[in-house]
Design brief:
This protein is an alpha/beta fold. It has two domains: about 260 residues, Alpha-Beta Barrel (TIM Barrel), CATH 3.20.20; about 80 residues, no CATH class. It contains 15 helices and ten strands. It has an eight-stranded parallel beta sheet. Strands 1-2 form a two-stranded antiparallel ribbon. The protein binds flavin mononucleotide (FMN). The site of flavin mononucleotide has 22 residues, from strand 4 and helix 9. Flavin mononucleotide binds next to strand 4 and helix 9.
């Protein structure tokens, strides 16, 4: 690392470690794990916790209809370790206030730090139910969702949302203001239009526009890969902190690296890949564990110069033992890394 990198890291760490409270509750720092279906599961979060440095973690999206009766010992997504609850936010997805309210009550009763309403997902199954990003087309429904949850619970309430369905930022500004008036404690904003599945760059300047429109904390999200980019997002937009998605899966130690002195060791990728395999196997049945591991490999393999061939080795695995063998045979100290993970792999 050269002297310039060093000073970026020092400045960044100082910024990220500034005290912050959300809805009256203190948060350890301003670098958070974004919600990611299929990736941000309890097994991954346990590995992440081992490195430390993540201020708040968000669960995968959990269906508001299912949450009230879900059994955490069996559920694939509504599952946690008790020790993570003080910094774990449960993300719910849904649009019917009655369902959202019941889900919110359960989330509060279980002891989560807070609850997050998903207004960003544009997967067809979610949009069909008028949920996720579909709520951005219907501001009255979006506001009703937020108001109903706010009335029901006192834990911090988050909304994660996107620009909307057209590049015009004004509708998102109006929504942000209405969410603040309805008692939302924090916004996490991903500046992309809803139909864009991360294929075009996000528009960072729109985070600034949202931040300037409200006085509650606004976290920026999208395409942050390096410490320089994280600092640029903070500086350029004035946002209160940054939420990291895909890079958190590619290199889970980045939270510790960017907020403290942590430096990953020579065998960091190898250890991570094996640890995640073990934890997934402990948490899920073999089929589910394998499926989740294979999704992880898309983001993990993108780190490496020969990521495509590595990924095809993983995808050929039929059991978790095959996975472990693929790790042992293919991941070595000193492998050539891409300076930025290969985003073409990320969009597969
Ligand atoms: C596989 C995958 C699953 C995702 N699932 C969710 C989700 O359940 N809820 C949500 O709000 N966003 C979800 N997202 C979006 C991320 O939270 C984040 O907004 C997006 O990846 C951009 O951030 P990044 O560039 O740091 O990855 C998902 C993204 C990916 C790649």
């Amino acid at each position: 690392m050269n002297a310039a990198d060093e000073s970026v890291k020092q400045i960044l760490a100082k910024r990220l470690n500034q005290a912050l409270s959300i809805g009256g509750k203190p948060v350890a720092n301003r670098l958070w794990l974004a919600p990611m279906a299929g990736l941000g599961h309890v097994a991954y979060r346990e590995v992440l916790a081992g490195y430390g440095g993540c201020g708040l973690m968000f669960t995968e999206m959990c269906g508001s209809r299912a949450v009230p009766t879900e059994n955490p010992r069996v559920s694939t997504v509504f599952r946690w370790r008790d020790e993570e609850l003080p910094r774990l936010v449960c993300q719910i997805v849904g649009s019917i206030p009655r369902d959202l309210v019941r889900a919110a009550r359960r989330v509060e009763d279980e002891g989560f730090f807070g609850i997050d309403i998903n207004m960003g997902c544009s997967a067809s199954g979610v949009i069909k139910r008028n949920s996720g990003a579909a709520l951005l087309r219907d501001p009255a429904a979006a506001l009703a969702a937020v108001e109903s949850v706010r009335r029901e619970v006192s834990i911090p309430l988050f909304v994660k949302f996107r620009t909307g369905w057209s590049p015009d930022i004004e509708p998102a500004v109006a929504l942000a203001r209405s969410f603040e008036s309805a008692g939302v404690d924090c916004l996490v904003f991903h500046p992309r239009v809803a139909p864009d599945k991360r294929t075009r760059p996000s528009i960072m300047d729109h985070i600034r526009v949202i931040k300037e429109a409200v006085s509650i904390p606004v976290f920026g999200n999208g395409d942050v890969v390096t410490p320089e980019e994280c600092l640029t997002m903070l500086d350029h937009t004035g946002c209160d902190g940054v939420s990291i998605g895909r890079m958190a899966v590619a290199r889970p130690w980045l939270f510790a690296e960017w907020t403290s002195e942590f430096i990953p060791g020579e065998t960091a990728f190898y250890d991570y890949a094996l640890q995640l395999a073990d934890k997934l196997e402990n948490c899920y049945d073999p089929i589910r564990a394998l499926k989740r591991y294979k999704l992880f490999t898309v983001f993990f393999a993108a780190n490496f110069a020969f990521g495509h061939s590595l990924q095809s080795r993983f995808l050929a695995a039929k059991t978790m033992d095959d996975i472990r063998n693929a790790v042992r045979e293919n991941i070595r100290p000193g492998m050539r890394l891409n300076s930025r993970p290969n985003m073409n792999l990320h969009s597969t």
